[in-house]
Amino acid sequence: MNVRRRLVSGTAVAAATALGLGLLSACSSKSNAADGNSGKLDVVASFYPLQFIAERIGGDHVSVSTLTEPGQEPHDLEISAEQTAQLQESDVALYLKNLQPSVDDAVAQSEIKTKIDAATLTSLEKHGNEVGGHAAEHDDHEGEEGSGEDPHIWLDPVKYAEVAEGVGKAFEKADPDNAADYKKKTAALVKKLDGLNTQFEDGLKNTRTKVFITTHAAFGYLAERYGLTEEAINGLDPESEPSANRVKDLEEMTKADGVSTVFYETLVSDKTAKTIAADANLKTDVLDPIEGITKKSRGDDYFQVMESNLKALQSALGAK
Question: Measured between alpha carbons, how far is 221 from 207 in angstroms, rounded to an integer?
Fold first, then answer.
């Protein structure tokens, strides 16, 4: 495992928390104080997919900030003292446990009244290097940060809709005066996600092959939802290096299953994907795990990037 992904020690988190508390007065003079004066529900989301849900459901009633900046690989986040203070001042912490351990520790030690763990709002599964619609044998690779479970639930529109419903209910409870609006916006978001699910079902129903290769196993839930098989170069860790045997297996599999494309993503290096593609005479393309929106993203928000992902999959799989 990448050394940058080590768990933050209890001592380090305690120190950051203590320092963060000391920064409360300084931070209060910034935007958080304005948010409090405006009467809005102050929500801190751990990374983009949860920020997107909070903004769509909360609308004008919430002030949403994120701990992971655009372009930053969320798995690598080490929460700062100022961000710890930001959490302490917020009304709601919206995060995904086991994706960003430093966030987990900071939320656990905070006194925030409403803590929403998206992982509890839907069911999580264990995914390995190979995940899909046929009898894939899951390897023993541990999940993100050793949890054993795949956290990439937002890439399945059905599971993402379940998370949205849970977030909506939590907002209603935290801010009952605006419960009717939260309920209405949640229903609208879920309806749009249902439509996206239908787009994927119809768009991937008839394809020349069902197998696709990605840099890391972020698309396991999506693969299972639509009867596909994801073969990941690096397993659940996007920055690990594949073994020589894994590379050989992938090259053999591309011939057997008629794979045409190796997918890479925008926030990590494309070097390994392009090397394997060149060796096997394959194309490369982007399949975005939507962990953050940047200038490189093929779309301005979750829905636009997911639709771009669908087009990329249709092209690679030979949709009919």
Answer: 19
Distance (Å, whole) CA 52 – CA 154:
11
> Would strands 229-232 and 130-132 be described as parallel, antiparallel, or unpaired?
antiparallel
User: Which token pair is 280?
Assistant: 């096997």
Maximum Cα–Cα distance for the chain, whole Å? 62
Rounded to the nearest 5 degrees, what angle is found at the Cα of 198, between the Cα atoms of 96 and 124?
25
Q: How far apart are CA 219 and CA 257, in angstroms?
A: 18
Q: Please name the amino acid found at residue 240.
A: S
Contact in structure between 101 and 144 (CB atoms under 8 Å): no
Rg (CA), the chain: 20
Q: Which amino acid is at 317?
A: L
CB 111 within 8 A of CB 209: no
Q: What is the pLDDT of residues 231-275, one digit of tens each?
A: 888 654 555 566 677 777 777 777 777 888 989 887 777 777 888
pLDDT, tens only, 181-199: 999 999 999 999 999 999 9
CA distance 117 to 138: 26
Six-digit token pair at 139? 């390897």
User: Whole-angstrom Cα distance, residue 249 to residue 130?
Assistant: 12
pLDDT tens profile 147-177? 478 999 999 999 999 999 999 999 999 999 9
Distance set, CA 134 to CA 71, 211, 224 (Å): 34, 10, 9
DSSP string, 80-129: -HHHHHHHHH-SEEEE-TTT-HHHHHHHHHS--SEEEEGGGSS--B---S
Kindly report the pTM of this predicted structure: 0.81
Sheet holding 130-132, edge to edge: 130-132, 229-232, 211-214, 261-264, 283-286
- 8 A C-beta contact, residue 9 and residue 58: no
DSSP, res 316: H
The rounded mean pLDDT for the chain is: 82
